[in-house]
């Protein structure tokens, strides 16, 4: 009989191979995750989208969460991790992409204690500030946090709060960095090659 998939102590949920995709706002996370998801059939969950959906559902803490987002700050980790756990529980897939999480050390440690296992890889999208600012100024997705002042705070917070998270993951050799100040297709080609190398053989088994 094949071995049962390993399960985490707290949740009893099957363990997945989780890839965290991180990078500043406008670094291309959502765009590239969409393409990888389409080409390799891997589900992806955007922490920001899940939070916006929670707020849109009219939950009691919605106003408070929206205020935090407009300040370019990070919402309580328990909320985000809960949303991600719920989303992951809804798929049988063994490998999942998570876009825009973790954002700070508390996110990372709450994930570790609540989910019970770590990610397999951190994909860091590296893009100069000016390019990210230009992209965000040019996109119109109706997001209230895409105004100049909030964008500036989001970029600053990404730099300061992610530095220790990246240091940690570098120290255990989990970070892969991609330059994303290039055309969508060029980044996608590089990311696809990387994906095939790391994940496609296992996915086919
Ligand atoms: N956010 C958060 N925790 C997360 C992800 C997002 O608090 O794990 C909040 C944060 O305020 C962030 C906003 O949601 O600025 C938008 O996040 P999203 O990932 O959608 O923005 P992006 O970085 O893609 O522009
Ligand atoms: Mg995004």
Task: Give an account of the 3D structure.
The chain is an alpha/beta fold and 205 residues long. The protein has a domain at 15-46 and 94-196: Rossmann fold (3-Layer(aba) Sandwich), CATH 3.40.50. 53% of the residues lie in helices and 13% in strands. It is built from 9 helices and 5 strands; from the N terminus they run E-H-E-H-H-H-E-H-E-H-H-E-H-H. The chain has helices spanning 29-40, 47-56, 62-70, 77-89, 105-115, 129-138, 148-171, 184-198, 200-204, and strands at residues 17-23, 44-46, 95-99, 121-126, 175-179. The chain has a 5-stranded parallel β-sheet, with helices on both faces. 29% of the residues are buried. Bound molecules: uridine-5'-diphosphate and magnesium ion. Magnesium ion is lined by residues 29-30, 46, 48, 100.
Task: Give me a quick take on this structure.
InterPro entries: Adenylat/UMP-CMP_kin, Adenylat_kinase_CS, P-loop_NTPase. Keywords: Kinase, Nucleotide-binding, Transferase. Helix content is 53%, strand content 13%.
Give the arrangement of secondary structure elements.
Blueprint: E1 17-23, H1 29-40, E2 44-46, H2 47-56, H3 62-70, H4 77-89, E3 95-99, H5 105-115, E4 121-126, H6 129-138, H7 148-171, E5 175-179, H8 184-198, H9 200-204
Parallel strand pairs: 1-3, 1-4, 2-3, 4-5
The protein binds uridine-5'-diphosphate and magnesium ion (MG).
